[in-house]
């Protein structure tokens, strides 16, 4: 009997956590997250909307700025490395051959890999948001209201709503980066080339395609987007389309390619 999608997702989840790179990445993520909180606190609670606009952090606005500090690490290191391991490492190491010797529908295997990666990123995003909120409420000056870039004054509920929208938008960006890394990992012959190609696309987008500059560090564009200042193509639309198109592309390539040769 062919295993269902949930069983494949459970199996993929176990394989992901069995890899040393996943464990090391998560440990580094947590350590860096805590160090960034210490750094922001030692800097006197000062961060930036951009190179020209600084802002004092307080109990209600800290979480988005913590993501601003962490986004480059996630987009440039964590996502490309984990996606390359998941979509390329098993193939080049031969481990995928043992999996595909069973009568598994490839679309289910690809979907399981994609969903597990998306869940892992969701956990990281949620942990980062909760850490930022707790850091602000416990370590920074208490305030009753706050405003973000080009927004009206927000109370506690409004600030938490803004933070949730900020992290939700950032999560869509993470999925777009994951999709890019997944399709490059599927196309290229080894994980190292896939990782380097993903970095090349992210940096190239920053310098050569203005609409893709948010892939490097999304926070500045998200502040502008939520403040109604973003011009040009909507980063949310681009992120969603990128995730969908790359998912379809990876499915098509996996169904066409022989992994048992």
The poorly predicted ranges are: none
Enumerate the strands of the largest sheet in spatial order, edge to edge or round the barrel: 1-2
Number of helices: 9
Largest sheet: 2 strands, antiparallel
Q: Measure the end-to-end span.
A: 24 Å
Mean pLDDT: 87
Content-based structural category: mainly alpha
Fraction of helical residues: over 70%
Kindly state the number of beta strands: 2
Q: What is the N-to-C order of secondary-structure elements (H for helix, E for strand)?
A: HHEEHHHHHHH
Task: Count structural domains.
Answer: 1
Alpha-carbon Rg, integer: 20 Å
Overall geometry comes to globular
Strand-residue proportion: under 5%
Describe the protein.
- The chain is mainly α.
- It is 72% helix and 3% strand.
- It has 9 helices and 2 strands.
- It has helices at residues 5-18, 20-42, 62-93, 95-100, 106-139, 156-187, 191-208, 219-226, 235-256; strands at 46-50, 53-56.
- Strand 1 (46-50) and strand 2 (53-56) form a beta hairpin.
- The model has no long low-confidence stretch (mean pLDDT 87).
SSE layout:
Layout: H1 5-18, H2 20-42, E1 46-50, E2 53-56, H3 62-93, H4 95-100, H5 106-139, H6 156-187, H7 191-208, H8 219-226, H9 235-256
Antiparallel strand pairs: 1-2
Helix pairs in contact: 1-5, 2-3, 2-5, 3-5, 3-6, 3-7, 5-6, 5-9, 6-7, 6-8, 6-9
What's the gist of this structure?
With 261 residues, this protein is mainly α.
């Amino acid at each position: 009997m062919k295993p269902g999608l949930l069983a494949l997702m459970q199996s993929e989840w176990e394989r992901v956590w069995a890899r040393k790179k996943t464990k090391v990445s998560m440990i580094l993520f947590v350590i860096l997250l805590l160090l960034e909180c210490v750094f922001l606190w030692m800097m006197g609670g000062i961060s930036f909307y951009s190179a020209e606009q600084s802002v004092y952090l307080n109990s209600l606005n800290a979480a988005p700025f913590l993501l601003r500090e962490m986004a480059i690490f996630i987009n440039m290191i964590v996502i490309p490395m984990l996606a390359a391991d998941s979509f390329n490492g098993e193939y080049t190491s031969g481990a995928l051959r043992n999996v595909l010797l069973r009568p598994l529908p490839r679309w289910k295997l690809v979907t399981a890999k994609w969903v597990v990666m998306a869940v892992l990123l969701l956990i990281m995003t949620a942990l980062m948001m909760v850490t930022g909120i707790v850091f602000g409420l416990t370590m920074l000056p208490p305030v009753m209201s706050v405003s973000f870039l080009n927004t009206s004054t927000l109370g506690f509920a409004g600030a938490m709503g803004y933070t949730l929208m900020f992290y939700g938008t950032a999560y869509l960006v993470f999925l777009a980066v994951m999709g890019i890394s997944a399709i490059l990992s599927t196309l290229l012959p080894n994980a190292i080339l896939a990782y380097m190609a993903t970095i090349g696309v992210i940096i190239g987008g920053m310098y050569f395609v203005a609409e893709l500059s948010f892939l490097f560090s999304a926070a500045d564009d998200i502040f502008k987007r939520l403040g109604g200042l973003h011009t040009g193509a909507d980063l949310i639309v681009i992120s969603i389309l990128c995730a969908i198109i790359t998912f379809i592309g990876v499915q098509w390539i996996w169904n066409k390619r022989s992994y048992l040769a």
